[in-house]
């Protein structure tokens, strides 16, 4: 009897010890409400929709716009529709002259409109033999066209969607001057591989001469876009729309599938743009990482960044790296991109980071990322549709286990037809996140922003206030 009693007390003691954190610290009202909301998808959507969300650190200007907006602007601006290819085109003269149909007329046909929306996004997409989510995703960008003045409309759409969801900061990737100014000037410029010599070749040639004008034009275009965004959202009226509260900064987005001279020249352009225009806070490198040029030149691009970092000075770098999966490319191409983005490309943040466990010496890379606080921008829907990586196959678990900071972002909410709330709901459901972990990821989305210390402190204080107000409601 005495022995049984002894075991009973010991068991109770162990049980209490095992449950100590949960039983000793009662769940707060908001934690109880979160746990309740997690029971049903629609209630979790409601809960997270109302929650403060900090920043979206990985979003592309062209990818953030929904297909319906592209069509509306095409109709209003006299663009053409290629009814066979289901693409938009800016006419050189008239649509008739190019065997296209003007958008305003063509898009009166609801069936065509539906096919266009499907082609400009992932709506109703089903992978088929020879056409994957990856193919559909990246092909959308070749189907788009707009007048430059619409960049303000794009910013307004992104900002208002963010503001309505209590997102307070957007760090938007955008490409300026590359295709219209830089590529024609440098496409046939030979590069030797000696970076100092190549830098000099570019600066002594047509690119270097045009650089000051390009930088001035880029800033002027952004002045116009920001001003138009403010007008569209009524930011200077007494009834401003929610997007007016959202701080917008930009990253210079270079394209890794172009010839080496174009990538290098656009990096140089970006290096100067970030220095002279404080709306541009960092640099990035985009486009399909499995493209043959992107794979061939990966180390060269990292070396180009390293050269500029050491000669023109440090900049904030975030890099799409390891957006690759086994089967998509040979194993050797999975072996080093994230590691090199950090070691040679000076990346302070990694976009996607999906192939991490395939990298040589990845445990050391993870340790470095945790120690140096190199954050991963996690884009769940994008990873699912482009790489077919989700849930238990997602490296979220590896980063979490090794203490690497992470924040969730949208990547291309227009193409994927999602929003920030959707991505956070998905994170909670896919990874069974607790309230504290979700909240910590939201704080990361501002802590790791490429903002100066003053702006960052302001936004973090604002986030504290928003959370205090949100949590006091439970
Ligand atoms: Zn991206």
Attribute tags:
474 residues, alpha/beta, TIM Barrel, 4-stranded parallel sheet, 11 strands, 53% helix, globular, binds zinc ion
Structural write-up:
- The protein has about 475 residues and is an alpha/beta fold.
- The chain folds into two domains: about 55-60 and about 150-470, Alpha-Beta Barrel (TIM Barrel); about 70-140, no CATH class.
- Helices cover about 55% and strands about 10% of the residues.
- The protein contains 24 helices and eleven strands.
- It has helices at about 1-20, 20-25, 30-35, 40-50, 60-65, 65-75, 105, 110-120, 135-140, 150-165, 180-185, 195-205, 205-230, 260-275, 290-295, 300-310, 335-345, 360-370, 380-385, 395-400, 415, 420-430, 435-445, 455-470; strands at about 55-60, 80, 85-90, 100, 165-175, 245-255, 280-285, 320, 350, 375-380, 405-410.
- A four-stranded parallel beta sheet has the order 1-5-6-7. The protein has a four-stranded parallel beta sheet with strand order 8-9-10-11. A three-stranded antiparallel beta sheet has the order 3-2-4.
- Strand 2 (about 80) and strand 3 (about 85-90) form a beta hairpin.
- Helix 3 packs across helix 4 (about 40-50), helix 13 crosses helix 14 and helix 14 (about 260-275) packs parallel to helix 16 (about 300-310).
- The longest helix has 27 residues, at about 205-230.
- The protein starts with a helix and ends with a helix.
- The model is unreliable at about 1-20 (pLDDT under 50).
- Zinc ion binds near residues 58, 60, 320 and 411.
């Amino acid at each position: 009897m005495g022995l049984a009693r002894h075991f009973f007390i010991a068991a109770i003691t162990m049980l209490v010890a095992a449950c100590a954190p949960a039983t000793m610290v009662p769940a707060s009202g908001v934690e109880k409400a979160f746990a309740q909301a997690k029971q049903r998808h629609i209630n979790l959507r409601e809960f997270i929709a109302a929650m403060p969300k900090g920043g979206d650190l990985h979003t592309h200007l062209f990818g953030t716009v929904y297909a319906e907006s592209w069509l509306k602007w095409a109709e209003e601006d006299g663009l053409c529709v290629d009814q066979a290819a289901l693409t938009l085109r800016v006419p050189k003269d008239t649509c008739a002259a190019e065997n296209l149909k003007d958008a305003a007329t063509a898009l009166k046909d609801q069936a065509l409109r539906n096919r266009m929306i499907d082609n400009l996004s992932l709506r109703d997409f089903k992978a088929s033999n020879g056409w994957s989510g990856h193919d559909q995703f990246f092909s959308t960008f070749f189907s788009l066209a707009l007048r430059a003045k619409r960049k303000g409309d794009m910013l307004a759409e992104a900002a208002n969607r963010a503001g309505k969801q209590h997102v307070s900061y957007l760090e938007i990737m955008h490409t300026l001057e590359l295709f219209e100014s830089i590529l024609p000037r440098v496409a046939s410029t030979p590069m030797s591989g000696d970076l100092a010599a190549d830098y000099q070749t570019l600066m002594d040639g047509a690119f270097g001469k045009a650089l000051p004008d390009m930088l001035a034009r880029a800033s002027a275009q952004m002045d116009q876009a920001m001003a138009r965004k403010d007008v569209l959202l009524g930011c200077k009226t007494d009834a401003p729309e929610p997007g007016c509260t959202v701080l917008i900064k930009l990253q210079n987005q270079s394209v890794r599938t172009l010839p080496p001279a174009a990538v290098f020249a656009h990096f140089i352009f970006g290096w100067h743009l970030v220095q002279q225009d404080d709306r541009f806070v960092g640099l990035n490198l985009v486009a399909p990482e499995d493209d043959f040029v992107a794979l061939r030149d990966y180390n060269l691009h990292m070396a180009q960044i390293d050269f500029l970092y050491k000669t023109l000075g440090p900049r904030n770098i975030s890099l799409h790296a390891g957006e690759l999966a086994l089967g998509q490319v040979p194993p050797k191409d999975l072996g080093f991109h994230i590691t090199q983005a950090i070691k040679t490309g000076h990346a302070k943040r990694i976009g996607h980071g999906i192939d991490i466990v395939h990298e040589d010496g990845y445990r050391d890379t993870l340790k470095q990322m945790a120690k140096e606080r190199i954050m991963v921008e996690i884009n769940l829907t994008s990873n699912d549709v482009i790489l077919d990586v989700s849930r238990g196959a997602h490296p979220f678990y590896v980063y979490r286990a090794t203490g690497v900071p992470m924040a969730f972002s949208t990547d291309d909410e227009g193409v994927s037809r999602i929003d920030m709330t959707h991505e956070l709901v998905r994170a909670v459901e896919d990874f069974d996140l607790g309230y504290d972990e979700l909240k910590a990821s939201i704080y990361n989305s501002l802590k790791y922003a490429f903002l100066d210390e003053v702006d960052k402190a302001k936004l973090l204080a604002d986030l504290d206030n928003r959370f205090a107000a949100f949590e006091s409601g439970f």
